[in-house]
Amino acid sequence: MKVLAPLHRWVAEPPPREVAEALERLRRGEDVARIAVMPDVHLAEDVCVGTVLATHNTIVPAAVGGDIGCGMAVLGLDASADRLAGASDAAAVLAGLQRSIPALRHPGAVDEFRLPAGLEGPLSSPGLESLRRRSAGAQLGTLGRGNHFVELQADEDERLWLMVHSGSRGLGPAIRDHHEAAANRLRGGLRGLAADSPGAAAYLADMQWALAYAEASRTRLMERACEVLAACLGVQPGSDAKISCHHNFVRREQHAGQWLWVHRKGAISAAAGEPGVIPGSMGAPSYHVLGRGCEASLCSSSHGAGRCMARGEARRRINAQELLVQLRGVWFDHRAAEALCDEAPAAYKDIGAVMRAQRELTRVVRRLRPVLSFKAAG
């Protein structure tokens, strides 16, 4: 019988039965060395979001997930929160963001959207390369749906900050699916690639491309948002360095004197002194943090609040009127309320409880409240 891999948890409350069972299955998996569970953990296909999985010699695409490189970027602005006190200013910003930032694809011909240097490819297979040529340019700087957002937030001194959450769009899931199909079935049900195999090398190269693409896409989103803020409010970026981090990736790391492949799915790297961003829901505070380098957590922390309701359940239990109540004090497009019910604050865990549960993982540098939230509805 296989000895169970060590598992350490930072949770505010016992996880639901389905999550606990999924974690126990993961502990029995082949080549699993260690597991760390973050307080935002919730059920997802194959591997729960909020899970950090370390292996000795195996790359597990499902332990990174489909939205490879999904992450956060924040930028301080030279303005205070009262600059958005009026409904007309908020409406102008929301309308400008809607015009400048598509949800899925930019309109027009694909060749109009050239990729930044370093993203020309090629990817590892003809199918992936064909998709890159067709879609990467047209999707760069688009937001996506679900919990991806552009948000204006105010810190404790009432200074405005811009925060963006997005990922690798359609390319990430395609990369995962392609390499998972070629992987071997492991004991425990997951599929994996031997770390020293050509297949693993191809996956890692494609993953690095997706990380760079997601980062470039967030940069483009911030540029477009800054253009809107300048045009509508006369607001400019401050001189602060941008904070950026991603929360779906795998990397070779040394922990307790041992080299491991550390997979983070819905978790950020939190090495000692490393800056990070942990968002709440669209009606709850977000945090800028520094990692504490906790070895038991594989130097990781949560990537956000984490869902407490699946999207279908949230749509059944929360209506548009309740969403309006939950988002009182936050500017957003009320016409999209019905479509955004599955993103209501009540569908997410209490971010305060999440942050308290991981005090030994991160140190809070800045707490921010949402002022204006822009999401693609539907």
Mean pLDDT: 94
Unreliable runs, pLDDT <50, ≥5 residues?
none
Strand order of the largest sheet: 10-5-7-6-17-15-14
Radius of gyration of CA atoms, rounded to a whole number: 20 Å
**Fraction of helical residues:** 25-40%
Oligomer: single chain
Order of helices and strands: EHEEEEHHEEHEEHEEEEEEEHHHE
DSSP strand count:
17
Query: Helices and strands: which structural class?
Result: alpha+beta
Q: What coarse outline follows from CA principal-axis ratios?
A: globular
Please state roughly what percent of the residues sit in beta strands, choosing from under 5%, 5-15%, 15-25%, 25-35%, 35-45% or over 45%: 25-35%
Tell me the major beta sheet: 7 strands, antiparallel
How far is the N terminus from the C terminus?
47 Å
Number of alpha- plus pi-helical segments: 8
Can you give a write-up of this model?
The protein is of the alpha+beta class. It is built from eight helices and 17 strands. It has helices at 17-27, 87-100, 126-139, 171-182, 198-233, 311-317, 320-326, 351-357, and strands at residues 7-9, 32-42, 49-55, 58-59, 71-80, 149-154, 159-166, 184-185, 191-194, 243-246, 248-255, 258-265, 267-269, 275-278, 286-291, 300-302, 362-374. It has a seven-stranded antiparallel beta sheet. A five-stranded mixed beta sheet has the order 1-2-3-12-11. Helix 2 runs antiparallel to helix 5, helix 3 packs antiparallel against helix 4 and helix 4 (171-182) runs antiparallel to helix 5. The longest helix is centred in the middle third of the chain and has 36 residues, at 198-233. The termini are far apart. The model has no long low-confidence stretch (mean pLDDT 94).
